[in-house]
């Protein structure tokens, strides 16, 4: 296991009903395949050693005995393997027959987990053959050894202490109080389910939601292996619908109606992080559970996992890949922003808003949000005071876009040329205007903020901030300049998402002329426009200075959302941005991100109010209570090891 990723598999082998020998051969073939691919956990279907559809043949001694004999050979198959395996079979103990899952590792049977809830409705009649398992610890005989038989068994890996696995069987997860709840509360981070769920119309959709929902509720990895090819079709058809889910996200699912194995890399660090940060998830309660330890050759597993991960790592974590979902998300976020501003206007009694309009992405989104809020309140848009403040770096393109956009949206446009004011300020403080340093740039930003605040006083209005979360994370804002406002509508919207929100508004505005302006804004390089243009074109491009926002948003999401080490974020970025950025480039900007993030916290410590729209935010009153003087040493030491190897 590397960087917390643990490979699991849900397998549907081809079987023959009541032929344990054939079934064992197919199961062992799949185990060999899983070993070659570096799987640390393999889950097979319910009663797969015999077949689920044996009916009254389960009462026959030859079938019961053959199942035990073949289990011995399956266990032997795991002797030199580096994995924990769950296989389903009928298990006799104390004169009763149990529908059970055997946990195998290193050539041994570690434990037998019986099914708790035996369905006896519709097409199911399991109580005819089996006895329900309980949390009472029984000891069963196996090849001269004592093996625990109990629903409440947990399996902990010695080499990966956080890897604790619990098991349940098919109907158990469909019940109102699944055993997996107890397992998770007792510390299980991964749940294995050996299942035989037949196919009826629409059942696959319900199964998808059930398994992903259970993984979300328990903040766990869930590996669901279903019966399929080879089961009797006398009355039922089994589709081999396998699912691997992680905290509400489906990592992999199988194509139904064919014997298939699916693989996925669970992120144990992510799951652990979610449980730590969610204080409503109780502390570990191990009462009643027996924990059995097993060993894995983690070095050997890691070597086989080097080439790729069996999970998708998106390069834009804030932006859904699916176009339909992206549109729904944009509408939802846009509405949250507008509702936040609407409430603030209602509470303060303000019917006027002042904002700086530059022709850039952030101020464009702020104007669009403000217009939506005014429409909700039925306040005339003329009372939105959009102020354009050209200065040394303003280009004709952004100026014209700002003006056209404001007019098309029905807001009031005011132009305040700040050149003379800034030059007078330079004279007052003795600064040479030819010196294009940080003073030259920030004086313009602070003058613009002063203008906005004073006009707000004139109209008894509220200054709406335009800065986004990506800029705040990097400290790319002038302290007490564009850093300050009376309500920051974009404060928790990352730059990559700002772009899609503006695009969404362009696509849905219904006005061709406004759409044309918004599309041109989207096509304009991101720039504060604080340095003089070259031949009328923007000379100061933000991403040339601080790095690509798509990289920084990726770093920000995985750092704040899950608390990952820089080395893990770097490795994930290599996969996510393969073909877009090389390792040296990613390492360079990751270094910039961490240094700026830690050094600029003092700016985030005094942010204006603004609505939270996603799971990551930097408000000092909500999601990020971080000291302004925190040391970044341990983060940088981890990063430097990676950068040395990458040559960055």
Can you walk through the features of this model?
By secondary structure, this protein is an alpha/beta fold. The protein has two domains: 5-304, Nitrilase/N-carbamoyl-D-aminoacid amidohydrolase (4-Layer Sandwich), CATH 3.60.110; 323-646, HUPs (Rossmann fold). It is 40% helix and 17% strand. The protein contains 21 helices and 20 strands. The strands form four sheets. It has a seven-stranded mixed β-sheet with strand order 13-12-11-10-9-8-15. It has a six-stranded mixed β-sheet with strand order 5-4-3-2-1-14. The longest helix has 26 residues, at 323-348. The two termini are 25 Å apart.
Give a short overview.
With 648 residues, the chain is of the alpha/beta class. Helix 19 packs antiparallel against helix 21 (633-646).
Quote the average pLDDT.
94
- List how many beta strands DSSP finds: 20
Work out the helicity level.
40-55%
Number of helices: 21
- Kindly report the oligomeric state of this protein: single chain
- What is the CATH topology of the largest domain? Rossmann fold
Number of domains: 2
What Rg do the Cα atoms give? 30 Å
